[in-house]
């Protein structure tokens, strides 16, 4: 839950900082001949509703594996869904977010020095990917040590080994106030390395998704051109749906308690709609071509791209594609490769409208 609080803090910071950073005189304003506030507002409200519903459905489909046997992580279809969603996330980073960051940080609205003298977009994306690796490694190490220490304390204080009878070991646990008879020892599933790994992955991935979701939401909400907003409604709806499937798959494998699952799923579903609502509120003073707005959006998009690309390649695709179950099943191996290409291809096509 500490990670969830970090996500909330990050989102609030983005909400507070972005509007103020965009209030400034722009040296290269462009006139938008298609401005129509009334018509644009209708499309924005439609975008809030459709993106909210699509995101919620997308993130909930893999989570429903708890109640729908066909969607459980041990089924083959789950690998197909995750590969497809990982392709979507990878394409989002390379095709949607990174180009936007390049466009912002190389804009003629910015001064030649230092923005035109150094490839800040690639640098920020690289640093973000390296930072994600470090957070990934340190968080996993921390949680493993924490769970190991807790398991050792529980084992020392709560488990009493009593004399066996009739060839069985009698185990008494204070935590459950019950008895269990059997020849096997008690195993703390919460300390499973794989489970800890999945929990770290799901939280770091949500952080990367939230950053760019808020930014694209604010950008859409601040626009007053129906011609610009109209294609974005459909594109972002599909975008959030498929991205939600990827995140939902990670959340499902992490086996969080129900409360944490609801918080993470709700948080993801609301980020873009809330971003749009904020964009609507600041549309009269927001200038997307102001230097401060371009720098802020460019840096955050580049950082988000680095996180998404790292997570898609290392934590989602590499982990599943090198899974012994996939490696020993030719049909499953071909299927996940096709799903990956399909997800990346479809999301790349959306760049035409987004």
Automatic annotation (TrEMBL):
Highest taxon listed in the record's lineage: Eukaryota
The answer to whether the entry has keyword NAD is no
> Where is the secretion signal located?
1-24
The answer on whether this UniProt entry bears the keyword Transmembrane helix reads: yes
A Pfam match is Zip
Protein's membrane topology: Multi-pass membrane protein
The molecular function terms in GO held by this entry are: zinc ion transmembrane transporter activity
- Where this protein primarily resides, as one coarse class? membrane
Q: Which residues form a coiled coil?
A: none
Where can this protein be found? Membrane
TM segment ranges: 43-65, 77-98, 118-139, 260-286, 298-318, 330-351
The UniProt keywords, alphabetically, are: Ion transport, Membrane, Signal, Transmembrane, Transmembrane helix, Transport
Name a GO CC annotation attached to this entry: plasma membrane
Family per record: Belongs to the ZIP transporter (TC 2.A.5) family.
According to UniProt, the name of this protein is Zinc transporter 1
């Amino acid at each position: 839950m500490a990670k969830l609080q970090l996500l909330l803090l990050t989102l609030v910071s983005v909400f507070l900082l972005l509007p103020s950073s965009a209030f400034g005189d722009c040296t290269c304003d462009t006139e938008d001949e298609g401005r129509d506030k009334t018509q644009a507002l209708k499309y924005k409200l439609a975008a809030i509703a459709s993106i909210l519903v699509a995101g919620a459905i997308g993130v909930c489909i893999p989570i429903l594996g708890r109640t729908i046997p066909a969607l459980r992580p041990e089924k083959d279809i789950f690998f197909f869904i995750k590969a497809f969603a990982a392709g979507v996330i990878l394409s989002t980073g390379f095709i949607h977010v990174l180009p936007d960051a390049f466009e912002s940080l190389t804009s003629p609205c910015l001064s030649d020095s230092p923005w035109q003298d150094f490839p800040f977009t690639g640098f920020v994306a690289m640093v973000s990917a390296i930072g994600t690796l470090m957070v990934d490694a340190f968080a996993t190490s921390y949680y493993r040590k924490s769970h190991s220490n807790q398991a050792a304390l529980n084992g020392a204080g709560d488990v009493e080994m009593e004399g066996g009878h009739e060839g069985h070991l009698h185990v008494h646990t204070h935590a459950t106030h019950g008895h269990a008879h059997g020849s096997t020892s008690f195993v703390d599933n919460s300390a499973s390395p794989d489970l800890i790994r999945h929990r770290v992955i799901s939280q770091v991935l949500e952080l990367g998704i939230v950053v760019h979701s808020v930014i694209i939401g604010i950008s859409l909400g601040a626009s007053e051109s129906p011609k610009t907003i109209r294609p974005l409604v459909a594109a972002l709806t599909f975008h959030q749906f498929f991205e939600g499937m990827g995140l939902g798959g990670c959340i499902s494998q992490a086996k969080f308690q129900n409360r944490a699952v609801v918080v993470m799923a709700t948080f993801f579903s609301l980020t873009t709609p809330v971003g749009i609502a904020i964009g609507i509120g600041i549309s009269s003073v927001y200038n997307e071509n102001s230097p401060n707005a371009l720098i802020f959006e460019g840096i955050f998009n580049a950082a988000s791209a680095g996180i998404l690309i790292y997570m898609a390649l290392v934590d989602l695709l590499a982990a599943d594609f090198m899974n012994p179950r996939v490696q020993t099943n030719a049909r499953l191996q071909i299927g996940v490769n096709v799903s990956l290409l399909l997800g990346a291809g479809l999301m790349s096509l959306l760049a035409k409208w987004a």
